[in-house]
Specification:
The chain has 334 residues and is α+β, with helices and mostly antiparallel strands. The chain contains ten helices and 14 strands. It binds 2-oxoglutaric acid and fe (ii) ion. This is Gibberellin 20 oxidase.
């Protein structure tokens, strides 16, 4: 988008502190704002959450220290070596989100420390403590904080959908076996020419229910506005999380809530860009079938029911190259 062009999409910033502090009078307005933002553009930012600034700063420091490790040390933690194929390190160019572009980012993924068995479950891979002191403890602390914030966001989501039960999604997102994942990214800085030819993360919609993203102040995340066919930046807002609706939630709400195409352009900057994303994909056996408040009498659901597991297997398979797909399917399917 040209600099002087007015953005077609404004990403709302919602202050959720009223809900976090249990102030019912402020919660009504938050829920209204959230409901409008989830319908369009399907992206918003939240401030007034309860994840401490100190933890977020410490997290970015540790993530930068991790990525500064020699590539052999990082490769020894490669995702393909994890029991479920979905924990550990991913080198630049591994994920393909858009056409022929190999994403110009490296990633490191963790989840809950669960015994392996089912799809996407299993132990994490960690660097040796001496290689990256306090990386593991910081990631684990951050993971717990995000899981807790995500549960609160799903409660707000339930209220925004007019469900009588604020805790409608609690079992889905807050059970021992709920699939949640946290992935830290480094996007290497690129020249203007390189940034035109590559993608940090290619255009995609998120697979799951809801995504919570912490980005640094470099920028580069863009949201697609279909009516005007333009890409629009998601500006950095201090202390904010970017929240977006994923495909599973779009399906679950019968298209009321929107899963929006987004991408990251490689940072044309003297500095690398870092982001940390948190996905709460819920329980594998949950059937995603139109939520009662999302259908009018006489309306037909847009999608047939599907389990979370079937939906995620399909989408994970599509986003990795052939070999990577095999790793995921074989290691988790056996
Ligand atoms: O790193 C970012 O800013 C966005 C990453 C993203 O869209 C994703 O991991 O799904
Ligand atoms: Fe995404």
């Amino acid at each position: 988008m040209a600099i002087d062009q007015v953005p077609s999409v404004t990403i709302p910033v919602i202050d959720i502190s009223g809900y976090i502090s249990g102030d019912l009078s402020r919660t009504t307005k938050i829920v209204e704002e959230l409901s409008a933002a989830c319908r369009a553009p399907g992206f918003f930012q939240i401030i007034g959450h309860d994840v401490p600034a100190e933890l977020r700063t410490r997290l970015f420091d540790k993530v930068a220290q991790f990525y500064a490790l020699p590539s052999t040390t990082k490769s020894a933690l490669h995702r393909g070596l994890s029991v479920n194929g979905a924990r550990g390190y991913e080198a630049i160019g591994t994920e393909i989100m858009e056409g022929d572009f190999q994403d110009q980012k490296e990633g490191f993924m963790i989840g809950p420390e669960l015994p392996s068995g089912r799809f996407l479950q299993g132990p994490n891979l960690w660097p040796e403590e001496s290689h990256c002191p306090a990386f593991r403890s910081t990631m684990e602390e951050y993971f717990a904080a995000m899981r807790s914030l995500s549960v609160k966001m799903f409660r707000l989501l339930a209220l925004s959908l007019g469900l009588d039960d604020e805790y409608y999604f609690d079992a889905f997102v807050d059970s021992r076996d709920s699939i949640s994942m946290c992935r830290a990214h480094r996007y290497p800085s690129a020249s203007v020419e390189m940034a035109k030819k590559s993608r940090g993360t290619g255009a995609h919609t998120d697979f799951g229910a809801m995504t919570l993203l912490l980005q640094d102040d470099i920028g580069g995340l863009e949201v697609f506005h279909r009516p005007s066919a333009t890409w629009n930046p998601v500006p950095y807002v201090k202390d904010a999380y970017i929240v977006n609706i994923g495909d599973m939630m779009e399906q679950w709400t019968n298209g009321r809530y929107m899963s929006t195409l987004h991408r990251v352009i490689s940072p044309v900057s003297s500095k690398d860009r870092y982001s940390v994303v948190f996905f709460n994909e819920g329980l594998l056996d949950q059937v995603i079938e139109c939520i009662p408040t999302c259908i009018e009498a006489g309306e037909t659901p847009l999608h047939p029911p599907v389990t979370v597991e079937a939906h995620l297997r399909k989408r994970y398979g599509e986003s990795y190259g052939e070999n990577k797909e095999e790793i995921l399917v074989q290691s988790v399917g056996s």
